[in-house]
Amino acid sequence: MPLPLTASQCQEIVHTLNPREARARARQSASLVGWRQLDETDHHFVYRARASWRSWGELVTVKVHASVVSVESRCSWVTQVFDWGKNSLNCAAFARTFASRDSALQVK
Fold first, then answer.
1. Judging by beta carbons within 10 Å of its beta carbon (0-12, 13-18, 19+), is residue 20 exposed, middle or buried?
2. Whole-Å CA distances, 60 to 16, 18, 71, 89
3. Can you tell me the distance from the alpha carbon of 35 to that of 37, in angstroms, rounded to the nearest whole number?
4. Measured between alpha carbons, how far is 56 from 50 in angstroms, rounded to an integer?
């Protein structure tokens, strides 16, 4: 079976929030960035980012851990090998929005 070559990007944000606050902030940050929520569990969320000239849209997974929130942006189409920086922009926008509410947060 061939490996998928889908373009993707990951980023982590270190935080000092309790799990409930981290989940609430992650949900609010994704909403402010303009993503549509597709799925949610206790520890992760899945969103869809809109299509643009850079990509046909992305699936963004946000995982909330005890002291880290990780965000992964992956092109929706498995055949899309180039994203022209859109996945990086998605991760950076989320990290900036999440961290902007608390100066104690660190973006890795």
1. exposed
2. 23, 22, 7, 12
3. 6
4. 8
Q: Where are the domains of the chain?
A: 8-107
Residue 90 CB coordination number (10 Å): 26
Query: 10-59 pLDDT, tens per residue?
Result: 999 999 999 999 999 999 999 999 999 999 998 899 999 998 887 788 99
What class does CATH assign to 8-107?
alpha beta
Q: What letter represents residue 52's amino acid?
A: S
Q: Who contacts 28 (Cβ-Cβ below 8 Å, separation ≥6)? A: none
| Cα–Cα distance for residue pair 63/69, rounded to 1 Å | 6
The rounded distance, in Å, linking the Cα atoms of 26 and 100 is 12
Backbone φ and ψ of 75, nearest 5°: -60, 140
pLDDT in tens, 60-93: 999 999 999 999 999 888 777 778 889 999 999 9
